[in-house]
């Protein structure tokens, strides 16, 4: 299984108040991930290119007897960035320290962490793009020269005391690589971009997690869960746990396609992975606004959610699935959205406002 992060509660949530198809972690995810997380690169499923490239980087570093180059991992939540950071530490036989960008708001916070690192230690910095600017500037020198300047005193009497650091490996993770300033991005010796998973890879993830959780599941049951997992191993594992619960209560504990489909229907996750929030956005767009275009604020009011929730939680997956499009005039539904909800798009009025060539042909 792959790593997890946190997210606010929305429609389509499970009993803990978290979206079942959210790509970030809740408390239960954190509790079970240690048992499901692969410990070696050979056990890690998917991300073939990143895995092969990273394997060369680590093997070369071990052959030289040196610390590995700094590594930057980018990609959506739930694809394996935290897991890979722990694998890097394991492969290098080094300890790992985990922190995050939002936790480092002052240069002194970073200096305290860096000054306590051991030689060869791996420092995993999640959401590195959210680190404060003063800490970011201190990190430049630490990454390149293994040195930081600690400022003592204030005003004209302040002095900079250079502090030498032992060689270490920084593993930075970000969901928004474009927000990283070039000077920071250029200091990473290896950059890997994590892609969404295909159905076959997710089936392997489900089978592996089912073995570790002692859940009996057949090929069709795993395929049903994989097909609704939005290309994300974290979601696949979360859905597997909910299907397991349903199978234990409603059946004999074994999971097949019928049991998986029935369980996910209870949790309002449809055959494309859309949950209640996603469908409420589509239904409002189609039924209230004729498919759009409609402004984001208006759409948010129609579904009773904050603007940021619709834009950052629901829209990315709907756009990736080709069900919704962002245009200068507002949000519009695609023909696939009408088909998915079983609705017929309105006939375009010649010369009237509408969706341009979206339904042409």
TrEMBL record:
Binding positions (DNA): 307, 326, 331
Gene: ruvB
Catalytic activity line of the entry: ATP + H2O = ADP + phosphate + H(+)
NCBIfam families linked to this entry: PRK00080.1, ruvB
Record-listed ATP binding positions: 36-37, 78, 81-83, 144-146, 187, 197, 234
Principal subcellular localisation of the protein: cytoplasm
Keyword match Nucleotide-binding: yes
Compositionally skewed regions (Basic and acidic residues) per UniProt: 7-19
Chain's role: The RuvA-RuvB-RuvC complex processes Holliday junction (HJ) DNA during genetic recombination and DNA repair, while the RuvA-RuvB complex plays an important role in the rescue of blocked DNA replication forks via replication fork reversal (RFR). RuvA specifically binds to HJ cruciform DNA, conferring on it an open structure. The RuvB hexamer acts as an ATP-dependent pump, pulling dsDNA into and through the RuvAB complex. RuvB forms 2 homohexamers on either side of HJ DNA bound by 1 or 2 RuvA tetramers; 4 subunits per hexamer contact DNA at a time.
Record's comment describing the protein's domains: Has 3 domains, the large (RuvB-L) and small ATPase (RuvB-S) domains and the C-terminal head (RuvB-H) domain. The head domain binds DNA, while the ATPase domains jointly bind ATP, ADP or are empty depending on the state of the subunit in the translocation cycle. During a single DNA translocation step the structure of each domain remains the same, but their relative positions change.
Organism lineage string: Bacteria, Bacillati, Actinomycetota, Actinomycetes, Kitasatosporales
Protein name: Holliday junction branch migration complex subunit RuvB
Cellular component aspect of the GO annotation: cytoplasm; Holliday junction resolvase complex
Region (Disordered) location: 1-21
MF terms (GO), sorted A to Z: ATP binding; four-way junction DNA binding; four-way junction helicase activity; hydrolase activity
Keyword field contains Lipid biosynthesis: no
Annotated keywords: ATP-binding, Cytoplasm, DNA damage, DNA recombination, DNA repair, DNA-binding, Helicase, Hydrolase, Nucleotide-binding
UniProt similarity note: Belongs to the RuvB family.
Compartments reported by the entry: Cytoplasm
UniProt subunit comment: Homohexamer. Forms an RuvA(8)-RuvB(12)-Holliday junction (HJ) complex. HJ DNA is sandwiched between 2 RuvA tetramers; dsDNA enters through RuvA and exits via RuvB. An RuvB hexamer assembles on each DNA strand where it exits the tetramer. Each RuvB hexamer is contacted by two RuvA subunits (via domain III) on 2 adjacent RuvB subunits; this complex drives branch migration. In the full resolvosome a probable DNA-RuvA(4)-RuvB(12)-RuvC(2) complex forms which resolves the HJ.
Residue ranges, annotated region (Small ATPAse domain (RuvB-S)): 198-268
Superkingdom of this protein's organism: Bacteria
Ranges for domain AAA+ ATPase: 67-200
UniProt source species: Streptomyces gougerotii
Pfam family, one: WHD_RuvB
Region span, Head domain (RuvB-H): 271-361
């Amino acid at each position: 299984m792959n790593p997890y992060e946190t997210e606010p509660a929305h429609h389509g949530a499970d009993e803990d108040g978290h979206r079942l198809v959210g790509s970030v972690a809740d408390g239960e995810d954190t509790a079970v991930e240690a048992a499901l997380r692969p410990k070696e690169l050979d056990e890690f499923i998917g991300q073939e290119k990143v895995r092969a490239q990273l394997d060369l980087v680590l093997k070369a570093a071990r052959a030289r007897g040196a610390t590995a180059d700094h590594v930057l991992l980018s990609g959506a939540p739930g694809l394996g960035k935290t897991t890979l950071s722990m694998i890097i530490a394991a492969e290098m036989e080094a300890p790992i320290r985990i922190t995050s960008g939002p936790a480092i708001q002052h240069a002194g916070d970073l200096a305290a962490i860096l000054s306590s690192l051991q030689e060869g230690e791996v420092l995993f910095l999640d959401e590195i793009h959210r680190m404060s600017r003063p800490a970011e500037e201190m990190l430049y020198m630490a990454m390149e020269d293994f040195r930081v300047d600690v400022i003592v005193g204030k005003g004209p009497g302040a002095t900079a005391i250079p502090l030498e650091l032992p060689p270490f490996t920084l593993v930075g993770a970000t969901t928004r690589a474009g927000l990283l300033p070039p000077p920071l991005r250029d200091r990473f010796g290896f950059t890997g971009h994590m892609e969404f998973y295909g159905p076959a890879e997710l089936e392997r993830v489900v089978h592996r997690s089912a073995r570790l959780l002692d859940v009996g599941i057949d090929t069709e049951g795993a395929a049903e869960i994989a097909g609704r997992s939005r290309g994300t191993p974290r979601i696949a594992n979360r859905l597997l746990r909910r299907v397991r619960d349903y199978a234990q209560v409603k059946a004999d504990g074994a999971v097949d396609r019928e049991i998986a489909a029935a369980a996910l229907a209870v949790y309002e996750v449809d055959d494309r992975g859309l949950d209640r929030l996603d469908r409420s956005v589509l239904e409002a767009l189609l039924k209230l606004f004729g498919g759009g275009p409609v402004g984001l604020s208006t759409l948010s009011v129609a579904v009773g959610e904050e603007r940021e929730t619709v834009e950052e939680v629901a829209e990315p997956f709907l756009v990736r699935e080709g069900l919704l499009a962002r245009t200068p005039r507002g949000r519009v539904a695609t023909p696939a959205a009408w088909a998915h909800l079983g609705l017929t798009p309105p006939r375009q009025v010649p010369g009237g406002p509408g969706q341009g060539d979206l339904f042409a042909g």
